[in-house]
Design brief:
2 domains, mainly alpha
């Protein structure tokens, strides 16, 4: 069986269509002429903010569905039903991406970020055409509009899929988990830096709520449900595969923040350090540092801001203390857990290899030969 490789550009085109359809007011609503320019600006920014990205979440859902569907469909279907379900799966996958855009718009406001995907963040772009206060308010509302739009897209999609109510429940649960994750992510910034083990544990827990929930767990859960798998095994397998994979993805993303480049990430190198974020990297560095290096790290993170030179000093400390190497090792361990959980699905060798290759997109440098799972 050859897996159908879905085209990210097809996903991109459909997202653009859906955002225009669901964020706008529709033809039956009138807006006072004097207010139209601002409304049009927000709709245009919704489309602009939705552009770009690797579409890993949508691809994970669609490709996992393509692997599962012949196994779990539960009997023959008409060509018309098949087309309707495939179309619904595409839109449901796009709904996850629209949700991500909503979350990123809000995240950039929370983090006071200037850039996203190599372009001005949404609230900054809106502020340049209004003012800082109005731009911030419009950015907040844009995130809300996109969050509402993704729910409407999901509702329309679920109606054409098996286990429609379970699909709705899983999608809303994804929303809730990320919102909880954002609260915890802000709460962790209040943690003192004198207990690296507690900081590491809290950071890893945030990964589950804020990242893995919608990056890997929900796309797999929704794919399995859409293919016809019952709710209980769908949830169990999605969690077993998606949780370690999502944590590995976030660990790799945090590493990229300090060892990557602006051209690769679309954000300034060391952005997390500039913002003073508490991360697993920081916890590992504090745990392994000498007394002098640990004191220096605490002093740097206690400051209201960090200069470019101080960002590079922190990165050097991450390297010298072995924190970067520790993250690489942790990523390898999480990847091995993912591979083992894929084996628990009971697939034949070909499907197991295909799903492993799909999941490997989230962990750069992963070798996906069946039975290895090494980095």
């Amino acid at each position: 069986m050859a897996l159908t490789r879905h085209d990210p550009q097809h996903i991109e085109t459909r997202i653009r269509e859906l955002v225009r359809q669901y964020v706008g007011l529709g033809a039956h609503h009138d807006v006072p002429a004097a207010l139209e320019p601002i409304m049009d600006m927000v709709i245009a920014q919704a489309a602009a903010s939705s552009e770009g990205g690797k579409r890993l979440r949508a691809l994970l859902m669609m490709d996992a569905y393509a692997i599962m569907e012949p196994l779990a469909a539960g009997g023959p279907r008409t060509a018309q039903t098949q087309r309707a379900q495939d179309s619904a799966v595409l839109d449901l996958a796009c709904a996850i991406e629209v949700f991500q855009t909503a979350a990123l718009v809000h995240d950039d406001i929370i983090d006071d970020s200037d850039m996203r995907r190599g372009k001005p963040s949404a609230h900054r772009a809106l502020a340049t055409r209004t003012n800082e206060s109005i731009g911030m308010g419009l950015g907040l509302m844009l995130g809300d509009l996109l969050a509402t739009a993704c729910i409407a897209i999901m509702e329309a999609s679920a109606a054409a899929l098996p286990h429609a109510q379970d699909v709705r429940t899983a999608f809303i649960a994804m929303h809730h988990d990320v919102e909880i994750g954002q609260v915890l992510d802000l709460a962790i910034e209040r943690m003192p830096l004198d207990d690296p083990d507690a900081l590491r544990g809290a950071s890893a827990e945030v990964f589950r709520w804020k990242t893995a929930s919608y990056t890997t767990i929900a796309p797999l859960h929704l794919a399995f449900l859409s293919a016809g798998m019952d709710q209980t095994p769908a949830e169990r397998h999605a969690e077993a595969i998606g949780l370690p994979l999502g944590v590995a993805f976030q660990l790799a993303d945090d590493l990229l923040d300090v060892v990557g480049s602006s051209s690769a990430t679309g954000k300034p190198v060391g952005g997390d350090i500039r913002e003073g974020k508490r991360t697993v990297l920081l916890a590992d560095a504090l745990a392994a540092a000498s007394d002098a290096d640990a004191a220096r790290l605490r002093a740097l993170y206690a400051a209201p801001s960090r200069t470019d030179a101080q960002v590079h000093e922190v990165i050097a400390l991450f390297e010298r203390t072995g924190a970067i190497a520790a993250s690489h090792a942790r990523i390898r361990d999480k990847w091995e857990q993912t591979v083992s959980a894929i084996g628990g699905l009971g697939f034949d060798a070909q499907r197991e290899e295909q799903l492993t290759a799909i999941c490997a997109r989230f962990v750069p440098g992963t070798r996906t030969e069946r039975g290895t799972g090494t980095m």
